[in-house]
Amino acid sequence: MEYEWKPDKHRLQQILQLLKESQSPDTTIQRTVQQKLEQLNKYSDFNNYLIFVLTKLKSEDDECLNNIGDSSLLIRATIGIVITTLASNGELQNWPDLLPKLCSLYAEDDNTHEGAFGTLQKICEDSAEILGSYDLDHPLNIMIPKFL
């Protein structure tokens, strides 16, 4: 029997609020969000919450990926950090459509292009080993031609 992880509603609401705050153009709020994300990343189940938000909550998933092209560089960067945090903690296997989706956003408007490319760059820097592995069917073979 497989164990299915379920989020604590209170903690989930806190993380959702933090993600909403990440959309603020205020640099002070952005710094606070970044600090909170770094603190939360120390908890073993934080990735589970992010995965839950990005894969199970359709509206939050859409919101996150749609906002990767936000006009605010800070918002794009924060969304990129959230996605990269998941990827760098070995969660690429649990989100198989992430890299193809980011690559498909590459051809959109300038902000979306920059947000998707910046996120892919961070993932490549933080997850280089897994990107060349058999576990993910060598995603670099797909990504590199798109970058050229």
Helices and strands in order:
Layout: H1 9-21, H2 27-40, H3 46-56, H4 58-66, H5 73-88, H6 98-105, H7 110-126, H8 128-131, H9 140-147
Helix pairs in contact: 2-5, 3-4, 5-7, 6-7
Subcellular location: Cytoplasm
Main location: cytoplasm
InterPro entries: ARM-like, ARM-type_fold, Importin_beta
How would you describe this structure to a colleague?
The protein is mainly α and 148 residues long. The protein contains nine helices and no strands. The radius of gyration is 15 Å and the shape is globular.
Instruction: Estimate the strand proportion.
Output: under 5%
- Unreliable stretches covering 5 or more consecutive residues: none
| Largest sheet properties | none
Work out the helicity level: 55-70%
Number of helices: 9
Average of per-residue pLDDT values: 77
Topology, number of strands: 0
Series of H and E elements = HHHHHHHHH
Shape: globular
Distance between the amino and carboxyl termini = 46 Å
In the residues, how many domains can be counted?
1
- Tell me the radius of gyration: 15 Å
By secondary-structure content and strand pairing, the structural class works out as: mainly alpha
Protein name: Transportin
Subcellular location: Cytoplasm
Keywords: Cytoplasm, Protein transport, Repeat, Transport
InterPro entries: ARM-like, ARM-type_fold, Importin_beta
Features:
148 residues; single chain; globular
